[in-house]
Each structure stands twice: as C-alpha cells, then as structure tokens.
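Record type: ASSEMBLY
Status: queued
Input:
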Amino acid sequence: MATEQQTQDTNAADAASAGNTETLTVTDNRTGKTYELPIEDGTVKGMDLRQIKVSEDDFGLMSYDPAFTNTASCRSSVTYIDGEAGILEHRGYSIEQLCERSTFLEVAYLLIFGELPTGPQLDRWTFDITHHTYVHEDLKQFFEGFRYDAHPMGMLLAGVGALSTFYPDAKQIDDPEERYMSAVRLIAKVPTLAAFSYRHNMGFPYAYPDNDLNFSENFLSMMFKKTEAKHVPKAALSRALDVLFILHADHEQNCSTNAVRGVGSSDVDPYSAVAAGVAALYGPLHGGANEAVLKMLRRIESPDNIPAFLERVKERGEKLMGFGHRVYKNYDPRARIIQQHMDEVFEATEYNPLVEIARELEKRALDDDYFTSRKLYPNVDFYSGIIYEAMEIPANMFTVIFAIPRTAGWVAQWMEMHEDPATKIARPRQIYTGARERDYVAIDDRDGPEKIVGPPARRPKRPRRGA
Ligand code: ACO
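Status: finished
Output:
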C-alpha cells in the first residue's frame, strides 16, 4: 500500500506531467512531504495549507498576514485598480469617463446594480433617492443631544447606527425589497445627517432637504442655506462636488469597506454594517490626509519656502502629505481628474494663496528624482482639501463628506457579499503568543507592582458655548 508521502508525490508528478501548470508544488522541509496546491485567479486557497501537517494531531499550516496586505478576502466585480498603471475602473468603466459623462447618482446605481441605468431606471432611482432624504424628527432630536462642539464624524457614526432603530425591517436582509430600501435610504439620508452634523457644530438651525435640487446641490443647500427661501449653489461648485463624490464612491477592499464586509458578514442590518464603515473612515490613517495637506501648505506659507521644505522631507524631517499611496505607484488617476475641476472652483470662489503653493510644490516634487524614484506622485487628497476649503467647508467635515459617496460603495460591496455563496461570518485565525495551563493564584499570593495604570489627571473643563 502506498504511503501518504508517496501518494502526494505521485499527485504532484501527475499534475506536472498532465501539463497542469496552474498549481503550486510545496515541499514541507519539516517532514520532506510534497503538496500540490491549485492556483486559481493568481491565488492559492488559505484552507489548502491546512493539509500541511507535521503529525496527525497537528492543526495544520496557516498563513500570517496581519493587515491582509497579500490576502484576497473576497471575489468582487465592483472596482478594479491597477496601482502600477494608475488605473481605476468601476464595473469596467474608467473613472475618467465616469467623471466626464456621468453623475454621482448614476455611478451609485452602476456600483450597486452592475450596469449603467437606462433613462427610466435612472429616473426611478433619482426619484427614490430624492424622496428618502428626510430623516425622522426623532433623529433630529437625537442629534440635538450632542455637545455643541461634537465632532461631526462622531455624530454621523452615531446617526447611521441609529437609523437601524428607525427601520427594523432592514434586518430582513434576505428580502430584496428590504435590501433595495436600505440602499436607497442610506444613500439618501447620509448627506442629510452629514449636513445636520455641520449645522449643529455651527449652532445653525437644521436645513431640510430640497427636492427640486440634484444630489450635490441639495447637500450644499442643506449645508449653507441661511435666511433665503431657496439656496441654489453655483453650478461650478455643485458639479465639482459631484465629481469629487464620483471619485470617492468606491475603492475596493480598503479599511472601511473591509469593516463593512466584516461586520455585515454577521448578517446584521446594513445600517449597522455601514456604521462600522463610517467608524473606520474616522481614523486619521484612512480619511484624514487632506486635512494634513492643508496644515502642511499653511506651514510652508509661501512658494519661496518650498525648496527648504522639500529638503526637510528628503532628510526625513517631514512627510510630503498628499503624495504617495499604498496601491498607486503612479499618478493617482483621481488626483489628475480633480485638477481639471480646480480652476472652475477657484474662479467661482475667493482667491486662496494655498493653491499657488500646492501647484508649485507638486511641480518641484515631480521634477525631483527623490520623489519619482520612489514612485511618489500626488494622491486624491493633495487637492481635495483645498477645493473643500474654497467651498467654505471646514476641515472637520472633510471625512464626513468622504462618507457621503463612499456609502454607495459600501452598499454595493455589502450587496455583493450578501449574494456571494462563499460568504461566511468573518473570523480570522490568530497565532497565540500568551501563556498556557497556569495554575490559578489566590489573591493574597499574587505579586505585582504597587501602582497600576490609572485614569489620566483631570483636564480643565472645556468652556460651554458663549462662555
Ligand atoms: N513623503 C515623503 N516620503 C515618502 C512619502 C511621503 N508622503 N510616502 C512614502 N515616502 C517614502 C518612504 O519614506 C519610503 O522611502 P525609503 O524607501 O527611502 O524608505 C518610500 O517612499 C516608500 O514608502 P512606503 O512607506 O513603502 O510607502 P507605503 O505604500 O507604505 O505608504 C502612504 C503609502 C502611507 C500613503 C505614504 O505614501 C504616506 O504616508 N503618504 C502621505 C499621507 C497621505 O497622503 N495619505 C493619503 C493616501 S490616499 C488615501 O488614503 C485616500
């Protein structure tokens, strides 16, 4: 009878002689055994490693990949990125064409349903989104409970989570009607919550949605409407914002999308899953770089100071914020598109000296071998903050505004996950590094430092509004 080793070696040899080159032959040097792992779509299955054992009772080999930097967590047909070539496509359409010819609502439909809508489909979709922008008055009361200086992203996070309590039927995630209604409500209401969070911060009364306006105009109206009966923003601003919304709508398996999928894999309602995405986006490593760019440009102060600043970057005393990207090792295609809309925005708004500094900084960095040799090019955040600032949107709202279009991406990815038969509750493994099998020690016999880490010293109270 053939041993296990012989059988495995024979399988490997058979696969090779049969010309099946879509395999990976692995030899475990601990045992000398050889295994044949199928390669599909340029990947090997993590579970195929489990058969590699040193003994019968061994759990089997696992892979270790703390930030999923080389692990595909799903199959997806929503967004394609080729970072080396600087390509971004949604459902196969280039981001350049979508920004030039589409609107954000059309792109949201494309992301969620996989195809560009026909005329009647787009009319219905636009009607449904437009007629679900209001939030329940109780949610407005809920927002009033926040401190006057509450960070708007914290308010949005809580508000999106709270939506699940207003729509308990959303828990029926196997019902396609309920899934559709959740998609519509999320895309429609996140801008309302976002604008309410800003107005709460400013001490302004909330401005209700205006159904006569398109998606981006309505958001700007809810942000900036004062005493006028109707607020129609300048076309250059609403169009630029719509393009920024398209640019931020989805970016495949980034931190927040991974959070939505991970939390959603428990079959929780989509509002709660999307709230997890908002929480992930709140982190400075994900959604905060454009604010850092503005701070950097302010510190540089004048184009004359750029050479000295770049020298400090090269000496590693500074980081050139808004440059470099984990995936794009070429010009971020989104940064190029933003540039095309900047002039229109700046013509429609007040002069901002930071623009000159940014343009000169980019030019000099792109002329410098230090940056090009490291494939450091402007990313989407290099110019987006300046555009938002020109629109008089404060820096603490930048991430909130990022969440508005990304909601469409989160919903699309959540829908795809729901329909994927391979979906299981997300549950990574760990490499346990702690102690084992210790004997319980009675409290009087325990050793330990006298002082434990306690609460921080009390900080002075923040003044109340008007103080
Ligand atoms: N300024 C100066 N040097 C940089 C920068 C930068 N912005 N980014 C990378 N480098 C250097 C690194 O020091 C490294 O140099 P070395 O090889 O001599 O050590 C080299 O370029 C490669 O950098 P990595 O750290 O390997 O690049 P990574 O892919 O890990 O980092 C990141 C990507 C985090 C975005 C980084 O480029 C960065 O911090 N950029 C500034 C922050 C920023 O703009 N973030 C927004 C990203 S877009 C978004 O999230 C929507």
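Annotation: The chain has a mean pLDDT of 92.
Annotation: Residues 4-63 form one domain.
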